[in-house]
Specification:
The structure is a homodimer of 346-residue chains.
Chain A: E1 3-7, H1 11-15, H2 17-22, E2 26-30, H3 36-45, E3 60-62, H4 67-71, E4 76-79, H5 86-93, E5 102-105, E6 110-112, E7 118-120, H6 121-132, E8 137-142, H7 147-151, E9 156-162, H8 165-175, E10 180-185, H9 188-216, H10 224-241, H11 251-265, H12 268-277, H13 282-288, H14 295-312, H15 322-332, H16 341-344
Parallel strand pairs in A: 1-2, 1-4, 2-3, 4-5, 5-8, 9-10
Antiparallel strand pairs in A: 6-7, 8-9
Helix pairs in contact in A: 9-10, 9-11, 9-12, 9-14, 9-15, 10-11, 14-15
């Protein structure tokens, strides 16, 4: 039995308490300063307020001021903060974790650097650790997994990535169950990039749903020809962005494809894509979804910015990314939706 | 203006009359001996009995005995027969087409040879033409396109494949419209294999829907984690089967991915997958869907048979195709559904 400490009581981090605890580990769920009410509710009901099932018996709940206590003796820390908590996690949590501990993060996202490179969060945190002279084993989880379906014990396959094969195998042993299946990849940047990319591309696919609602009426049957055409194009562009043809490990690409599939059907990215497709501007869509965080939009804009910089340097051609460029134009230049279908044909 | 003759008044062939006629060509739709009532209905109403929209004005309809007349002076023949009509098309129609004519087929399928090779229909017909000493320019269409959505003018992207680049470009010029977009590929076997493969894999994805209905109740929300996991695995296995890592033209693979996406949502393959997932045997599922042709099942079995032969010769490993092998076991060995989730992880 190991001790596994989850920091951040959002849905995804909290959902991992299920396989962790069902495998007999001691599981400690620590809320951030934003999760105070969630932790109170978990203590009272043994259920996360957004879940439809109780936690397995025995999960322990901690408020943030008990973080040190919750981290004591743990073998694995699961980072469960959203992308808005990345800096906080790096500055507040990482320094408090014992040397040599494994840290598996569910946070998805990318930063774009002025030179056109994309930096994933494990890479960002590694830079912070290097400055601190501290050694932790950073890892991340990608792949198609919505938290509520994991809680329902839907069969799920994800991919853990880390530069340490040994850590990957240990984390898989700790967390795999008969419904939670884990691929392993040492290509951290690849998996994290694929997983981040899928958000912008899911938006692109959802555009077609809104366009068809606008054209054929809101209750018209779903138009899968259009969706599938954009899905195929999204897969092409992800493959190019990942440089998959040059890789021997194609796990990142296939993780991205599966993740793209689930993202088209789940939640907020789909909603905003449909609204844009119906003809709303991004500002109107944001207003309509007031209060909903749209991390996916940020990633698409960042990736597009990086690709434009690379194209200026002649390292790639913007004509290889017509879907990404169009999504970016909609988001940053307030252009109307006008999917460049012919640009998709080869 | 060109003359385009469509032989076979099934849904897909007939749907191509829309872009063809809207581009101003003379379009002649010829029924097979099975299509007699369809042609009668088209003549009376200018609408295919299975479509919800009239043909564009001016499409001409022919019964089979008028085939020679319908073929006279045509620049392009579109082959619109089902896979059950492949031999008939090769033996009856091809010899009647004028030397040098382009023939674009919508028929999807593969034959497996005793040596483990897969033979697509254009290859099969080319053998027949070689025996006849006749030259036609064979081409095929693949990609995500359901006929009823094409008729509705949903935005659609397909891929035409042929060994003749010049013919490809001419066919694109003849048929492309502002809603029918056409990629071109000279990898005929690749495109046709990808398009055939997607059927067996769509069945695999649909299994998860039935499994979850069985487990969580028929009205439970769709479980996209499972679907996406199998989708990602299906993409992996298609990539391997196509030898995509060794190809420079990845169009076949991406056409297959888009086609897989649309096939999961459309029609009969999905239905049989769901029934199998709920626990019916293949015989029970067939009985339930009495009268429905299930070409997709045939392809999956043929591909699996070819892969087993190749594996026996040491050319590939069955462990690279756990999903295909499981689908084959369900179909040919009447095994119960038991998706090998762990075999998907790498």
């Amino acid at each position: 039995m190991a001790v596994i400490t989850i920091v951040g009581a959002g849905m995804m981090g909290s959902a991992l308490a299920f396989p962790a605890r069902e495998n007999g580990h001691e599981v400690r769920l620590v809320g951030t300063h934003l999760d105070r009410d969630i932790i109170d509710a978990c203590r009272q009901t043994n259920r996360h307020p957004k879940f439809t099932a109780d936690f397995p018996a025995g999960v322990r709940f901690y408020q943030l001021e008990q973080l040190e206590q919750a981290l004591e003796g743990c073998e694995l820390v699961i980072g469960g903060v959203s992308s808005f908590g990345v800096d906080w996690f790096g500055e507040y949590v990482l320094p408090r974790i014992a040397e040599g501990t494994m840290v598996l993060t569910v946070t998805k996202g990318l930063l774009d650097l002025p030179d056109g490179r994309l930096l994933c969060y494990p890479e960002l945190w590694q830079q912070q650790l290097d400055r601190l002279g501290k050694r932790l084993i950073l890892a991340a989880v990608g792949g198609p997994c919505t938290s509520y379906e994991l809680v329902a014990h839907d069969q799920t396959e994800v991919c853990f990535c880390s530069h340490s094969r040994r850590a990957l195998e240990r984390m898989k042993a700790l967390l795999q169950t008969d419904y939670y299946h884990i691929s392993l990849s040492e290509d951290v940047a690849g998996v994290e990039t694929a997983v981040a990319l899928k958000n912008g591309y899911a938006l692109g696919i959802a555009l077609t749903i809104g366009v068809n609602q606008q054209r054929f009426g809101p209750d018209s049957e779903l138009h899968y020809n259009s969706q599938a055409a954009v899905f195929g194009q999204a897969a092409r562009e992800m493959y190019r962005l990942l440089g998959a043809q040059r890789q021997t490990d194609l796990n990142p690409f296939f993780v991205g494809v599966g993740d793209l599939y689930v993202t088209v059907y789940g939640g907020r990215t789909r909603l905003v894509g449909i609204l844009l497709g119906r003809g709303l501007t991004i500002d109107e869509a944001r207003a309509r979804l007031e209060g909903v965080t749209l991390e996916s939009l940020v990633v698409a804009v960042r990736v597009a910015r990086a690709v434009r910089i690379r194209a200026e340097r002649g390292e790639c051609s913007l004509s290889d990314f017509p879907l990404l460029m169009h999504v970016d134009e909609i988001l940053t230049r307030r252009q109307p939706v006008n999917i460049p279908w012919e640009a998709f044909t080869l």
